Amino acid sequence: MVAAFIYCWSFNPAFGTPLFFEYTRGLKLSQNLIGQANASYSFGMLVGAFVYPIIWKYTPKHQIKIAIALSVTSTLSFLLLDSSNFFMLEFLRGVSGMLGILCINWLAAGVSPKGLETFATATLIGVYNIGTQTSGIIGAHLYSNVFHNSINPLLLIASSVTATCFLIQILFSRHTFKYDQDSESK
After folding, report:
1. Residue 179, Cα to own-chain centre: how many angstroms?
2. Domain span holding position 64
3. How much of the chain exceeds pLDDT 90, in percent?
4. Would you place residue 177 in the very low, low, confident or very high pLDDT band (cuts 50, 70, 90)?
5. Does residue 79 contact residue 155 with C-beta atoms inside 8 Å?
6. Would you say residue 83 lies in a domain?
């Protein structure tokens, strides 16, 4: 269940090559501005790392729900992409991305069998990498060959796949993962 969650979380075919083409072809941004947008994303990730302890006061189940909701919202916000808001959208994507990564690391640590923590965590991070790579390949193919250079359908696919994490989270919170009783009582 956790591997399915991680794969769905990392499967985001709208970003990477399609977003780069949207920036260069659609918005006609220079390489300099695209680099600055990437810096905005990185700064958002840094802010996300500082925000994570704030949401730590919530139960693990709620932390994951917050991260999923922010990710779906930030992905859908790219439907409003234009030259006036791409820095803010990249920043928000960075914040939600970091919150997701930290939740994934927490999940991986929580389901790792005693004595096999490193192996289990590495395997689950491998699943994350597979999700990222396959989404990049599929996203580039769909963008070019199916959606005729439109990123909007990819954004809907990406947000839908991430939203399935809500369902997976419900399943593994009941069956696979034992939440810490102390944090549940808060």
Report:
1. 22
2. 2-177
3. 49
4. low
5. yes
6. yes
